[in-house]
Each structure stands twice: as structure tokens, then as C-alpha cells.
Design goal:
The chain is mainly alpha-helical and about 200 residues long. The chain has 6 helices and no strands. The relative contact order is 0.15.
Length: about 200
Amino acid sequence: MLGIAYVAVMAGVILIGPLGYPGYSSLHQHISEMGATGAPHGPTISALFIATSVLLIAFWLLFLRALPFSAMRTAGVILLAINGLGLLGAGVYACDFECARNDPSVAQQLHDLFGGLGYLSGVLGLFMLALGLRGLDGWSRLFPLVMICAGVAALSLPLIAPEFPWHGAAQRMLETAFMTVIVAVAMRLWRSSAR
């Protein structure tokens, strides 16, 4: 349920957050801009980013305990938990207004560092998780989905750079790839526990 709670809250922030931000464009602006210093609901959005990150970290660490040991799976899940830590750091250190890159504050620099490392860890984690699930009894059906999501995330990652005009859309594709895997894993865990 932690994974579903994470997806529900994060999707809510991504979809509903822009409604309270006049002029905000989900296609051309980063998600973090909704929680930035000076944004209309910045502190609330940042608090939601922090809360969802805790849910995400807990979800991946509990998932790790549900599987038989494999170095590949373990490394993948730990990297996905590190993605959660990166997002937590990015939530704690809100970016400057509109995540402006000219003369960035220390908070902006830390935001970019944590967020960037978190995303990179998450993309690598998806590939390793996919390979770790391949051939695992009861889980191998998720291999193609996780691998496709890993590919989408890898292709989206360089496009979230602010220089790309559609970086908001690219970031949402990246987040959708992560959330798709989380929902698939959570549903598989739920079916296992229901037996």
C-alpha cells in the first residue's frame, strides 16, 4: 500500500498542483517549480514531496525483504531507494523561484544535486531490477514492463535539462515510468499476500 499511496499523492501533486499556480506550464516547467521558494503553494508542495519520498523509500526497502536474495535485484532496489533519498533531498532544499539557474542559491545547487543523483540512481535501478526479475518465479512477467519503463526513463532523463524546451513533459514521462513500475510491483505484492 505504500507504493500506491506514493503514486496517488505524487500524481495528485503533478496533476492538481499546477491549478493553483497561474501561468505554470506542465510541458515547459519542472515539477519542482511548484514547490520552489516564492511559488504560490511552495511550502505545501515541498512538504508533499518530502512525505512522498519517505513513502517511496519505505516501499522499496520493504519490497527488498519480500524477494529472495539476488545481487542484481538487491542493487536495483537499493538504487531505487536512493532515488527516493534524492527526491527527499530535493524536497528539503527547495529550488529558487522558477528554479532559475542564473546565480543559484546553495539550496538550488543542493536541490539540483540531490534530484539529479536521485534520478540517475532510479534509472539505473530500474534496469537492474528488470534484469533481476527476469527468470524469478512469479515475478518474471514484470520483466518486459520494467525494462520498457527503464528505457523510457533513460531516454527522458537527458531531456529534463532546462535547455530542452519541453523539459516539463520529459520529467513527467520519467516520473510516469517510475510510477508505472511502482504500481505493477505493488499490485504483484498485493496478489501474493492475498493468496
